[in-house]
Specification:
heterodimer; A: alpha/beta; FAD/NAD(P)-binding domain; 5-stranded parallel sheet; B: Rossmann fold; 37% helix; binds flavin-adenine dinucleotide; binds thiamine diphosphate; binds iron/sulfur cluster; binds magnesium ion
Chain lengths: 559, 301
C-alpha cells in the first residue's frame, strides 16, 4: 500500500514545494456506485450451432494465425469440421450478429479451411488410450455414431463400432454426392477419428439381426444407436412398384459407389429436400433432363438454399405446387406422369402452409424415370422391442439421448427423423458425455439459459461495412459435367480477411479499448486478460460503453 | 494477446483527482506515453493543476512546474533555456494549459513564445470553458452553449474563437489538432512534435462530463462525434503555417447527434440547432477550400 505523506510540523516540509510521492494512496474506488466487470456472453452464432462450436473463439484464433488452437477448439464439439465445412446448412450464420449489420460472417467457409488444415496436419489430433474399464457399443457409423465413438474414446472408454455396410460414414458416404463431399476426403476424416483412440470397427454387421441387442447389452456397459434412416418413403400410389419408379436413395447409393447409371432421357424427382436436390443433380450428371416436382413452393423447400440455387444454375427445372397423381405406362414402360395442381392452405403443425389440391387442375409430363425423395424411414428390425419408439423413430427423454432403457442411448436421424449432419454430430457428442457421466456416477448438470447479445448491444462505431469473402467455386457449366468438388475453399488471405469480419459478440477480442480509454488507469493489461483495479476505478463506465463487443457488464455496488 | 496498441509505459498513475470520465486526463496519459520520461511540464491554473494531486503528491512521475494562470508558455520556454544552459538539450518541455489559459489569459505569453519560436511543445487541452472554477465561459466555449456565465436565457451567442488560425499566423513549425477518441493519432502527433525544434502547438479536444452535462460513459463518444460531425476538425499545419492537411476519412455524423446527450445544449430549439448545423458545415467547407487553395499555391503542390 502506498502511504499518504503527512507532515507533523513545518520542519519536515521541503524548502520548496515539490513532489515527494504518488497519488496511489488515494483510493478513488470509493467514489464509485456502479462497477464494470468482465462478463463474457455466449455469441449468438454459438447458440445457433446445434453442437455449440465455440465459433467466436476459433475465429479469434484465426485472426491471430493460431490455426492449430483454432482447429482444436472446433474438435471440442465437432470431430469432422472438414465434413461440416462442406455440407452443413450452417444455422450459425443465420444467427450471426453481422447479418443485422451487413452480411453474416461465412463461418462455414472458415470451418472448412480449418478442417482441411487439420487433415493436412496429422499431428494436431491428440491420441487417447483405453484407460477406463466400461465398454460401449456404438451401432451405426454415420455422423451420430462416429461422433459418439470419438467423444467416448476421448474420455478413455473403449468403443466397438458396428456398421451394417461394408464401408463407414452412413449418408456421408452413400448419400451425399462426390461433388459436395468426396469419398476420398471422407476416408481421411474417418481414419483420423478412428486412429485417435480406442475404437474397434465391426463393419458388415447389422445390429438387431447379425448380433442381437441382448448380446450387446450383456457384453457392453452401454449401447448407442445411431442408425439413421435407411429406406425411402413410398408415394402410396397405384403402380409404384412397377417400371420407372425408383427410390432416390437407391439411385444415390449406386452413383456414390461408382456404379454406371442410366436414368433415361426425362427424369422427374418428387420431393423438396436435400435428397431430391442430390438425386436431381446426379441424374443431370448422368445426362438426363431433370425436373424437380414439389407440392409446396420454393419457400417451403427443406433443402439447403445453396443446394437449390446450384441445382437451378446447373439446369435443373423446378415445378412447384405439383403432386404426382397418376402414372401412365405404355407396354409396361413408364411414359407419362399426371400431376395434381396444388395451392397453399392453412399452416400445419410444422408451421408450413399445407398444400391442398386445386380441384380439376392437372399437369402432364413425359417421364422415363420418377425418383422418390419425399422422406426416409428408419429400420428398427430386432431393436424395437428393447426401447420405446414413436412411430418408426426411437424415443428419447432429452437431448442427451437417454431412452426408456437405462443402458441404451440413441441419437441422430433415428431419433429426430430426417435432420442434418451437425445435429447428428451434436447428438452423438451429448450422448457420449452423458454416458461418461453415468459411468462416473456424476449427476446431470443444471443448464442455465445462456446470456447472449445482439447488434443493439454492440458499439458499432468500431465496425465498418464489408462484403463477405465469396468461396471460390467452379462454374455451374463445368460442375454439371462431372463429379469434381464444386467449392474449392478459401485461400489463406481470404480466410484471414473473413475472420477479421467477426464482431466477437459478447466476448473480449483484446481490442484494448477498455485499457486504453480508462481515465483512471484502473485496468491492468496482463498476458492473456485484463483486470479491473477496483481500488481506483471511479465507475465512469467508459470502458463498458467503448467495448465494441459487449464483453463488460455493470453491477451496482452493494448488490 | 496481440501487441498493445499504445505504449505500456504509464507516466500518469491512478489516484488522481479528476472527475469520472475526464477527457483531459486521458489526453495527458496519451501525451506522456508518446513523450516518455525525459519530459518536464508547466501547468498553469486549470483543472489539471488540481487533477495532478495535493502537495506533496503528484500522479505524474515527471517534474511539473505549477505556474500562474497566464504564464504557462513563457515559464516553459524559460525552463527549456535553463536546461540548455546546463547542457541538457534532450528534455522535452511541455506547457499544458486549458482553453481559458490558452485562448484568453495566456494568449499574450503564448504569442510571445510562438513569435520567438521558443523550443517548447504547447498543449491546449480544450474542454471549452473555465471548468476548474465552476464552468464559466471562455472564448473557446462554442456558440449555443450554456455555462454559469452564459445561462440558458442568455446562452453564448459568440462563436468559438479560431485559435488554430491565430497560431498559424505565427508561422510556427508544427500545429496539430487531435481528439482523445483516437489515441493512436494523439500519440503519433506528440511523437512527431517531439522530433521538431521550435514552438509546436497541439490542440487536443477533451470532453468534460461535469461541465457539458452528459453521462461520463459517453466521454469518448463525445470526443468522437465532435470530429465526425465536423464540429472539431482534426488537422495538421506544417511548413510554418503554409500547409494544411485535414483528416476526412470517416463516416460523417450529424451535429444534432453530438449535441443531444449534452445538457449544455439542451435549451436549443430545432431551428437553432439547424442554424448551428449550417454554421458547422460552412466552416468545414471553408476549411477544405483553404486546404485546397494552399496546396495549389505554386511551390506548395
Ligand atoms: C441424400 C442426402 C443428402 C443430405 N445432405 C445433407 C447436407 O448437405 N447437409 C446436412 O447437414 N445434412 C444432409 N442430409 C441429412 C444428413 O445426412 C443426416 O441427417 C445425417 O447423416 C444423419 O446422421 P446419422 O448418423 O443419424 O445417420 P446416417 O448418416 O444415416 O448413418 C446411419 C448409419 O447406421 C447404419 N446402420 C443402420 N442400421 C444399422 C444396424 N441395424 N446395424 C448397424 N448399422 C446400422 C447405416 O448403414 C448408416 O451407416 C442429407 C441426407 C440425405 C439422405
Ligand atoms: C490570474 C488568475 N485569474 C483567475 C484565476 C482563477 N482560475 C483558476 S483556474 C481558472 C479557469 C481555468 O480554465 P481553463 O484554463 O479552461 O482550464 P480548465 O479548468 O477548464 O481545465 C480560473 C479562472 C487564477 N488562478 N488566476
Ligand atoms: S460476428 Fe462473429 S461472434 Fe458474432 S455472431 Fe457472427 S461469427 Fe459469431
Ligand atoms: S473506464 Fe476505468 S474508471 Fe471508468 S469504469 Fe472503466 S475501469 Fe472504472
Ligand atoms: S474493450 Fe476490447 S479489450 Fe476491453 S473487454 Fe471489450 S473487447 Fe476486450
Ligand atoms: Mg477549460
Amino acid at each position: 500500500m502506498v502511504k499518504k505523506i503527512e507532515f507533523e510540523s513545518y520542519k519536515e516540509m521541503p524548502i520548496r514545494p515539490m513532489t515527494l510521492g504518488s497519488m496511489m494512496w488515494n483510493l478513488t474506488g470509493s467514489w464509485r456506485n456502479v462497477r464494470p466487470l468482465y462478463d463474457f456472453k455466449t455469441s449468438p452464432c454459438i447458440l445457433g450451432c446445434p453442437t455449440n462450436e465455440n465459433i467466436q473463439r476459433y475465429i479469434y484464433l484465426v485472426t491471430e494465425g493460431r490455426y492449430e488452437e483454432a482447429w482444436k477448439t472446433i474438435i471440442e464439439s465437432n470431430p469432422m469440421p472438414a465434413v461440416t465445412g462442406r455440407v452443413c446448412f450452417h444455422p450459425c450464420m443465420t444467427k450471426c450478429t453481422r447479418k443485422d449489420y451487413d452480411e453474416a460472417v461465412d463461418i462455414n467457409a472458415i470451418e472448412r479451411s480449418l478442417g482441411d488444415m487439420g487433415l493436412e496436419n496429422g499431428g494436431w489430433m491428440e491420441k487417447s488410450k483405453a484407460v477406463k474399464k466400461e465398454k460401449v457399443a456404438v451401432a451405426g457409423s454415420g455422423p451420430a455414431g462416429l461422433s459418439c465413438a470419438f467423444y467416448l474414446a476421448r474420455q478413455g472408454y473403449p468403443v466397438t463400432l458396428f456398421e451394417r455396410d461394408k464401408a463407414l460414414g452412413g449418408v456421408l458416404r452413400w448419400g451425399i454426392p462426390e461433388y459436395r463431399l468426396s469419398n476420398e476426403l471422407l476416408d481421411r476424416v474417418i481414419k483420423q477419428i478412428l486412429d485417435s483412440g480406442p475404437v474397434e470397427v465391426k463393419a458388415g454387421v447389422s445390429v438387431g439381426t447379425d448380433v442381437s441387442m441382448d448380446q450387446l447389452e450383456k457384453k457392453y456397459d452401454a449401447v448407442f444407436l445411431g442408425l439413421g434412416l435407411m429406406s425411402s418413403r413410398g408415394l402410396g400410389m397405384d403402380g409404384e412398384d412397377e417400371d420407372g419408379i425408383e427410390p432416390g436413395l437407391d439411385f444415390l447409393r449406386k452413383v456414390n459407389s461408382g456404379e454406371r447409371v442410366d436414368p433415361g432421357a426425362k427424369v422427374v424427382v418428387v420431393g423438396g429436400g436435400n435428397t431430391a436436390m442430390d438425386v436431381a443433380r446426379c441424374a443431370l450428371r448422368a445426362g438426363s433432363e431433370v425436373t424437380v416436382a414439389y407440392r409446396r413452393t420454393r419457400n417451403e423447400m427443406p433443402a439447403i438454399a445453396e443446394e437449390i440455387e446450384e441445382a437451378e444454375k446447373e439446369g435443373v427445372a423446378f415445378h412447384f405446387l405439383a403432386a404426382p397423381k397418376e402414372l401412365v405406362r405404355r407396354g409396361g414402360k413408364l411414359v407419362r406422369v399426371i400431376f395434381q395442381k396444388m395451392e397453399l392452405g392453412e399452416p400445419d403443425d410444422s408451421g408450413r402452409r399445407r398444400p391442398v389440391p386445386v380441384e380439376g387442375e392437372t399437369i402432364e409430363m413425359e417421364v422415363d424415370r420418377l425418383f422418390t425423395a419425399i422422406g426416409e424411414q428408419a429400420d428398427l428390425e430386432g431393436i424395437e422391442s428393447t426401447v420405446e419408439t414413436d412411430w418408426d423413430l426411437i424415443k428419447t427423454s432429452d437431448e442427451t439421448g437417454a431412452t426408456s432403457n437405462p443402458k441404451i442411448f440413441a441419437g441422430g436421424d433415428v431419433v429426430t427423423g430426417a435432420a442434418s449432419v451437425v445435429e447428428a454430430i451434436a447428438a452423438g457428442r451429448k450422448a457420449a458425455e452423458r454416458i461418461g457421466r453415468m459411468f462416473a456416477g456424476e449427476p446431470e448438470p443444471e443448464v442455465e439459459e445462456p446470456k447472449t447479445v445482439g447488434i443493439e448491444d454492440m458499439n458499432t462505431d468500431y465496425f465498418t461495412r464489408s462484403k463477405r469473402n465469396l468461396v471460390p467455386r467452379i462454374s455451374a457449366s463445368e460442375a454439371k459435367t462431372g463429379f469434381s468438388e464444386i467449392k474449392t475453399g478459401y485461400t489463406r488471405e481470404q480466410l484471414a480477411s473473413e475472420a477479421e469480419r467477426c464482431f466477437s459478440c459478447g466476448v473480449c477480442n483484446f481490442c484494448d479499448n477498455c485499457w486504453v480509454y480508462c481515465p483512471d488507469v484502473a485496468i491492468a493489461r496482463h498476458e492473456d486478460e485484463y483486470e479491473f483495479l477496483y481500488d481506483y476505478c471511479k465507475g465512469c463506465l467508459i470502458c463498458v460503453f467503448e467495448c465494441p463487443c459487449n464483453a463488460i457488464s455493470i453491477r451496482e455496488e452493494g448488490k | 494477446m496481440k501487441a498493445p496498441r499504445i505504449p505500456m509505459e504509464e507516466l500518469m498513475g491512478s489516484g488522481h483527482l479528476a472527475c469520472q470520465g475526464c477527457g483531459a486526463t486521458q489526453a495527458m496519459r496519451f501525451a506522456l506515453k508518446a513523450l516518455g520520461p525525459k519530459t518536464a511540464l508547466t501547468i498553469p491554473a486549470c483543472c489539471w493543476a488540481v487533477i495532478d494531486g495535493s502537495f506533496p503528491h503528484s500522479c505524474i512521475e515527471l517534474p511539473i512546474f505549477h505556474t500562474a494562470f497566464e504564464t504557462a508558455a513563457v515559464v516553459a520556454a524559460g525552463i527549456k533555456v535553463g536546461l540548455e544552459m546546463r547542457g541538457d538539450s534532450e528534455t522535452t518541455v511541455m506547457a499544458w494549459a486549458g482553453d481559458g489559459g490558452t485562448y484568453d489569459i495566456g494568449l499574450q505569453a503564448l504569442s510571445g513564445v510562438a513569435e520567438r519560436n521558443d523550443d517548447i511543445i504547447y498543449v491546449c487541452y480544450d474542454n471549452e470553458a473555465y471548468m476548474n472554477t465552476g464552468i464559466q465561459r471562455s472564448s473557446s466555449t462554442p456558440v449555443g452553449a450554456w455555462t454559469t456565465t452564459t445561462p440558458v436565457d442568455n446562452y453564448k451567442k459568440e462563436p468559438k474563437k479560431n485559435m488554430i488560425d491565430i497560431m498559424a499566423a505565427h508561422s510556427i513549425p508544427y500545429i496539430a489538432t487531435c481528439s482523445v477518441a483516437w489515441p493512436e493519432d494523439v500519440i503519433a502527433k506528440f511523437r512527431k512534435a517531439k522530433e521538431i525544434k521550435g514552438t509546436r502547438y497541439i490542440h487536443i479536444f477533451t470532453p468534460c462530463p461535469t461541465g457539458w452535462k452528459f453521462a461520463p460513459e459517453l466521454s469518448i463518444q463525445m470526443a468522437r462525434r465532435a470530429v465526425t460531425s465536423h464540429v472539431f476538425p482534426v488537422l495538421e499545419i506544417t511548413e510554418h503555417g503554409q500547409k494544411i492537411e485535414v483528416w476526412k476519412d470517416f463516416e460523417p455524423t450529424s451535429v444534432r447527434d453530438y449535441f443531444k446527450p449534452q445538457g449544455r445544449f439542451k435549451h436549443l430549439t430545432d431551428e437553432e440547432i439547424e442554424g448551428l448545423e449550417r454554421d458547422v458545415e460552412q466552416k468545414w467547407r471553408r476549411l477544405l477550400a483553404k486546404e485546397k487553395m494552399m496546396a495549389s499555391i505554386p511551390g506548395m503542390e
